[in-house]
Design goal:
Elements lengths: L11 H27 L5 H9 L16 H27 L5 H26 L5 H27 L4
Length: 162
């Protein structure tokens, strides 16, 4: 079964359904990123503080404490499952586009690598591997760039004339 370019052959109401889904999914994704900004976890030191606390720093505006094991497992479990599902659905839509197959393969597979690096990195950071904050930052940024690229590609090709 050939999926390449099938997005162009879908009926208008299916294209509208997919567009609505991608737009609402994007709103949810970027709301999550706004939460990351609100917790000041959008930079390496903020990531470290968010999971390891800042109670040993003398002057802070918001006191943060090291997360407990149950809280960490809950965070990791929910994020890994939900973000995997987001990228599985987005990858399925990317597969239907007429973009070059190597580009589609990258957009479909890379997010799963970033999920493991981001949330595995958060766990290792919590365990004391402080340099993992950089891996978390880079992989999280790449994951977001792939999401933007995938959503943009799908939305563009939904309404492109072929």
């Amino acid at each position: 079964m050939e999926l390449h370019g099938k997005i162009h052959t879908l009926p208008k109401y299916v294209k509208q359904f997919i567009a609505a889904f991608v737009i609402v999914l994007s709103i949810g994704y970027f709301t999550g990123l706004q939460f990351v900004r609100q917790t000041e976890s959008d930079n390496p030191s903020g990531i470290e503080e968010n999971y390891l606390g800042n109670e040993d720093i003398e002057e802070v505006t918001v006191m943060k404490f090291k997360k407990g094991e149950r809280e960490m497992l809950t965070i990791l479990h929910t994020h890994i499952l939900s973000i995997s599902f987001i990228f599985f659905l987005m990858g399925g839509l990317v597969a239907l586009t007429s973009a070059p197959k190597k580009w589609k393969a990258f957009l479909m597979i890379e997010p799963f690598i970033s999920i493991i690096l981001t949330f595995g990195g958060i766990y290792l950071l919590w365990k004391g591997w402080l340099w993992m904050k950089w891996i978390v930052m880079i992989s999280g940024t790449l994951m977001t760039l792939v999401f933007i690229s995938s959503a943009g590609l799908v939305l563009y090709q939904l309404f492109q004339r072929k």
